[in-house]
Amino acid sequence: MTKSIRIGTRDSALALWQATHVAEKLNALGYTTEIIAIKSEGDIVLDKPLYELGITGIFTKTLDIAMLQGRIDIAVHSMKDVPTALPNGIIQGAVLERASCADLLVYNKDTRFLETEGVIATSSLRRKAQWLNKYPKHTVEDLRGNVNTRLQKLETQGWNGAIFAAAGLERIHIKPKNHLILDWMVPAPAQGAMMVVVNQDDNYCFEAVNQLNHIETEICTHIERQFLRTLEGGCTAPIAALAQYNEADDSIHFKGVLLSVDGKEKIELEKNVPIQEWKKLGYYSAKEVLENGGTALMEMIKQTLKN
Ligand SMILES: NCc1[nH]cc(CCC(=O)O)c1CC(=O)O
C-alpha cells in the first residue's frame, strides 16, 4: 500500500525550504509526498516578545493541531523551535543531519562599534544575554519576524547589526556581505537541526521518515534539549547548549550556559565524556549548573521576566 505523505510546514521561506528538503529525501526513497503550507501564529502575533506570550511552542502549535486533526501526516520543524515536551500523540520521527549551528552578526556599515558602544537587534533571550555579557556597554533592541523581515528591518532601523542563525540564512541562500560568525556565542539547543514529527500510531510514516534520521545529530540534540528541559522546568530563560561528537576518541564534548537576562551573570559548564554516557549527560550537566548557583539564577530570571 502506498499513500501520499502530506508534509505540513509553516509558510516562511525557511520552513518551505526545509519541508522541500524532506520531501526530496522521501521521494528519493520511493515515497510520494505533498507539501501543505500552513500559516503559523508565530508569524502573525508580533506586538510582544515571544517569551512574554508565555507560549513555548508558538512556532509549532498550528502544525501540531493540523496533525492531530489529520490534515497533515508529518511536520517539519526547525528543531530549536520545538518545545522539549511534544504534544500527546505526536512523536519524533527523525532528526536530520545538523547544518551549521553558528550564530552570525549581520552588520550595517562596519564593525568598529564592537570596540565602543553600539545597538544590536535580536528577540532571543539567549543571544541578548550573551551579547551583553561580552559587550556590557551595548544596547540590545527587540527584533522579530521571519528571516527576510528581520533583514529588511535591519536596513532601515539604524541599528549597528542583528543576529541570525547561519543555517537559516544559508538555507534560503542569503549571504549578506557584511557578516561576522560569532564563534564565541553558544548556540540554542538543537540550532541548525531539523526535526520531523509524526502521529504516534502512524507506522507507515514513522518507518518512512525514520530512514532520514542522523544518529549523531539525534544524540547531540537529545543532550542539549535534556539540559534545557532540566534547567527550565517549563519557563523560558537565556540558555545555550552545544554537544559535539568526537570520532577520534568516541566522546562527546558538551558546553552549557545559563545567563541572567541582562547578561551580567553567567554560569558555564564544559565537559568531555565517553559516548556511553550520552543518555543522562544533559540532565547531570543541568543539575551541576543548578547546584553551582543556577537555582538562584533561575529564580531571578523568573522574577525579571514577570515584569
Ligand atoms: N526562531 C527562528 C528560527 N528558528 C530556526 C531558525 C534558523 C535555523 C536553525 O537555527 O535551525 C531561526 C531563525 C534564526 O534564529 O535566525
Automatic annotation (TrEMBL):
<comment type="pathway">
    <text>Porphyrin-containing compound metabolism; protoporphyrin-IX biosynthesis; coproporphyrinogen-III from 5-aminolevulinate: step 2/4.</text>
</comment>
<dbReference type="InterPro" id="IPR036803">
    <property type="entry name" value="Porphobilinogen_deaminase_C_sf"/>
</dbReference>
<dbReference type="Pfam" id="PF03900">
    <property type="entry name" value="Porphobil_deamC"/>
</dbReference>
<keyword id="KW-0627">Porphyrin biosynthesis</keyword>
<comment type="function">
    <text>Tetrapolymerization of the monopyrrole PBG into the hydroxymethylbilane pre-uroporphyrinogen in several discrete steps.</text>
</comment>
<protein>
    <recommendedName>
        <fullName>Hydroxymethylbilane synthase</fullName>
        <ecNumber>2.5.1.61</ecNumber>
    </recommendedName>
</protein>
<dbReference type="GO" id="GO:0004418">
    <property type="term" value="F:hydroxymethylbilane synthase activity"/>
</dbReference>
<feature type="domain" description="Porphobilinogen deaminase C-terminal">
    <location>
        <begin position="220"/>
        <end position="290"/>
    </location>
</feature>
<dbReference type="InterPro" id="IPR022417">
    <property type="entry name" value="Porphobilin_deaminase_N"/>
</dbReference>
<feature type="domain" description="Porphobilinogen deaminase N-terminal">
    <location>
        <begin position="5"/>
        <end position="204"/>
    </location>
</feature>
<dbReference type="InterPro" id="IPR000860">
    <property type="entry name" value="HemC"/>
</dbReference>
<dbReference type="InterPro" id="IPR022419">
    <property type="entry name" value="Porphobilin_deaminase_cofac_BS"/>
</dbReference>
<dbReference type="InterPro" id="IPR022418">
    <property type="entry name" value="Porphobilinogen_deaminase_C"/>
</dbReference>
<dbReference type="Pfam" id="PF01379">
    <property type="entry name" value="Porphobil_deam"/>
</dbReference>
<comment type="similarity">
    <text>Belongs to the HMBS family.</text>
</comment>
<comment type="subunit">
    <text>Monomer.</text>
</comment>
<keyword id="KW-0808">Transferase</keyword>
